[in-house]
Amino acid sequence: MQETSTPFTKTQQAIALEDRYGAHNYHPLPVVLDRGQGVFVWDVEGKRYYDFLSAYSAVNQGHCHPRLVKVMQEQAARMTLTSRAFYNSLLGEYAKTVCKLFGYDRLLPMNTGAEAVETALKMARKWGYEKKGIPAGKAKIVVCEGNFHGRTITVISMSTDPDSTGGFGPFTPGFEVIPYDDLPALEKALEDPNVCAFLVEPIQGERGVYVPAEDYIPKAIALCKERNVLFIADEIQTGIARTGRLLASCHNSRCACPNGMCTDPDTAKRPDAVLLAKALSGGMYPVSAVLANEEVMEVFTPGTHGSTYGGNPMGAHIAMESLAIVTDEDLCGNAERLGQLFRAEMQKLVEDYPWVKKVRGRGLLNALLIEPRKAADGSPRTAWELCLLLRDNGLLAKPTHGDIIRFAPPLVITEEQLMECVNIIRTSVGQFA
Ligand SMILES: Cc1ncc(COP(=O)(O)O)c(C=O)c1O
Fold first, then answer.
1. Final residue of a structural domain among 328, 354, 387
2. Whose Cα sits closest to atom 3 in ligand 1?
3. Partner of 19 at 20 to 30 A CA spacing, among 26, 33, 155, 331?
4. Is the beta carbon of 235 within 6 A of some atom in ligand 1?
5. Do 324 and 398 belong to one domain?
6. pLDDT tens-place string over residues 181-224
7. The pTM of the whole model exceeds 0.90
8. What is the span of the domain harbouring residue 424?
């Protein structure tokens, strides 16, 4: 491969280097970030932006939260990794903290979101064989069209996105795909006695913040309970205050727990398993987890599952602090309140511009749907071009598909900052017209 000639700006240099030596498995917006603090990030040229992606909702607590930096520095100097060959002084305390906060008996620690999903699939199958009596090798897991659960071979085996699956077969069998937000389809799929689990996102984030009907999640939970099928909520993107609740799947059960915390022990209304990652570590370090009650989690016995880094003291300490920040700073309340304000402001754009079609979302996980057009000179006007304008005006967001822009700022954003961002979006939309 040819070496490129030395480019001019720091931005061009960084992009050229990544283009030359990195695999081309992403299509980043052309901006090179160097520093972050709270809701802000700075590029290598020193320009400041509002971060309206939050690393796909991993940085809910804001960039480089001082409490997380402190914990990380202290823990780095004390101990980072033990493996699970030995106990460590933080894993038990961490597991207890998470179990108490979310109302489950046990936690299984992993690192990335996709690993948490893989773990849940294994757990569900084993539960199906050992507890439900499904014949060996026949367990089936029901999933939804438009899902995004990660990138491993088994996880993409559930995907309906050709970009995710193309050229990667053969795939893992044992999944049935049904339409999202479709209770009759779920009811029908659950007639098969070999179904061990239904895996679903309470809001489909990667599909473009697709919010299902109000009663979808509670009724789907009830259907699964009736058929003795595990309801597994993938809350990797929606969880940890992002939608104004600790978990998005709590939203529609009409619970009113203080500060979005689960105080309702009624397991009939809740998922059998919850998958967490991303904001569990506030963007500091890969930490993921599967939460479930004893009757389900006990299918894992020594040697049946694991990960060298899963449950390490560094991740455990950071995750405890990340969750404490969510509670101490009432990030659920902030996401709920500012989310309503944001959608009301975006609705004004929908009314003012015919090609701004819709705003949807919950809490501070929102999306603006636009109609892709062509400018007078024939050049495209898609969500990508609008994101470039937003960038020029000081706000970073990323399109999903050609016509949807997700807006998900860190949850520490203030009302004043949010209104400044609304103005940036309004200005950019005006320039885009
Ligand atoms: C709902 C959901 N599940 C799973 C994942 C995979 O997480 P990771 O990228 O950490 O593997 C993602 C990532 O975007 C996600 O949004």
1. 328
2. 149
3. 155
4. no
5. no
6. 999 999 999 999 999 999 999 999 999 999 999 999 999 999 99
7. yes
8. 10-61+331-432
